[in-house]
Structures are given as C-alpha cells and as structure tokens.
Amino acid sequence: MKIDLTGKLAIVSGSTAGIGLGISKALAESGATVVVIGRDSAKVEQALASILHDVPGAQLRSLTADLGTAEGAEKLFAAEPHADILVNNLGIFNEVDFFDAPDSEWTRFYEVNVISGVRLARHYTPQMVNNGWGRVIFLSSESGVAIPADMINYGVTKSANLAVSHGLAKRLAGTGVTVNAILPGPTFTDGLEEMLKDATAESGRSAREEADAFVRKARPSSIIQRVADVAEVANLVAYIASPLSSATTGAALRVDGGVVDSMAI
User: Fold this and answer.
1) Which family does it belong to (predicted)?
2) pLDDT profile of the chain (265 residues), mean per 10
3) What is the pLDDT of residue 94?
C-alpha cells in the first residue's frame, strides 16, 4: 500500500507542534504540499525547519494567523483560497473543575475547538465538491466520548467535533468529499509533557515514563497501557487523507490505545 498525495494541497490548523506538526510531516512525506499555520511566526519557522529536517525536499507553505478567530480565518482564506485536504487539528485543553470554569472559558474553548473547524470546512468544502474530491478531517478525542470529570468543557467541544464531522459527511454525500473524525487518546506531545512536568519532577521518572504512568492511572481502561506516539496518530490521518480511504466517511476513527470501550461509539 502506497499513500501518494502528490499534487494535493493540505491545510493543517494548529500545525506548529504536537499532533498537528506530526500530521504535517506525514502528509509532506506522502507528497502533499502542506500549509503550516500558527499564531507565532517564530514557532512557524521552527516547525518548517523541523519538517524539512525529517522530510528533506518537503513542499511547504506557511502562514502566521490565529485560526481561533474569524480574522485569522479570513487571512488564511486570502492566502490559500483552495485546498484538497483540510485537517482541523487546532485545539486547546486544560484541567479546570466544572465549578471553576466561567462562561468565558466555555466560550473560548468552543470558539477555538469547534467554530475554527466549522469556518474552515464551510470555506473549503464547496470547491472540493466542485472538484469531485476532497478530504476533511476533524481531530476529536477519546475525551469526546468518555468525558473526563476534570476537563468537562474540553470534552464537550470534542463531542461537538464528532457531531459536526458526522453531520457534514452526510451533507456531502455522493460528492467524492469524505469527512471523518480521528479520536486520539493520551499522546506524547509537548502539551502533555508540560501538563505532567510537576509530577515528573516529583517522581524522578523520565517524561515518557511519567506519561505512561499517567495513562495507567488516569485511563486504566487503556489496552496498550501507554501513551501513543504522535506518529501513530499522524499515520492514520495520512491514510484517511489519501485516495485509498474513499469508502471511509462519517466515521469516528479511534487511535486511543483502546481507552474507550469499542461499544461506546
């Protein structure tokens, strides 16, 4: 099986770090031209350098914009009016108790985690339909199915990603444009490492060991009993972005290490 995205333009939101950066590398390695986007120009440049280091000769474009805002989205649309592949990866998370999260925090999470992807999909899918081919991928989470008690506002936005993805897939039925959601579980990213830095310092374990211990404690239903690597998520995205996945749409595709009971979705 050869994933060949030569000639395809891929837009990956939130692509300067973590899963978004890993997805950008996987798509570039498969031959796509990838648009790397972030709010910080220095981080965008670092991401470009990282991709080129791992994928020499990668075809890349870049933009500095905050896609969590309407203004940032319009800046992207002006710079890149069309795309063949859209990966809505942009998202934020934190641990905050339900009773400590004000309306403004709920609104902020909804704007960044949900509305950003809605804006981009609304803009890019009509041209995909005209072309008779396209891929739209929403990065949801196992937290969208098994809402964590300490991240309820985050989990609700990830549930919304699932709903938008499934509904849009049905809206685009028969057009050649597929829409799917990817559900990562705990993944070894800079964000998770930062979240666990105090626990890592206290335990004396390595960051990876602490992350694996976190999974066993906080997600005991995990079958693999460890965090996933970014590449393990990115590889699934690359397949779903490819012509090989043409019969997969409206799906919630798990790469969560078995955290969620398979009967739950």
Assistant:
1) Belongs to the short-chain dehydrogenases/reductases (SDR) family.
2) 96 97 98 98 98 98 98 98 98 91 96 98 98 98 92 96 98 98 93 89 93 91 94 98 98 93 56
3) 83
My answer on whether 160 and 195 are in the same domain is no
Distances from the Cα of 9 to the Cαs of 30, 48, 95, in angstroms? 11, 16, 35
Please count the structural domains in the chain: 2
154 in catalytic set: yes
On whether residue 211 sits in a domain, the answer given is yes
Domain region containing 212: 188-227
CATH of the domain at 78: 3.40.50.720
Contact between 215 and 145 (Cβ < 8 Å) = no
pTM: 0.94
Q: Which position among 110, 124, 154, 239 bears the catalytic label?
A: 154
Do 100 and 193 lie in a common domain? no
The phi, psi pair for 246, rounded to 5°, reads -60, -20
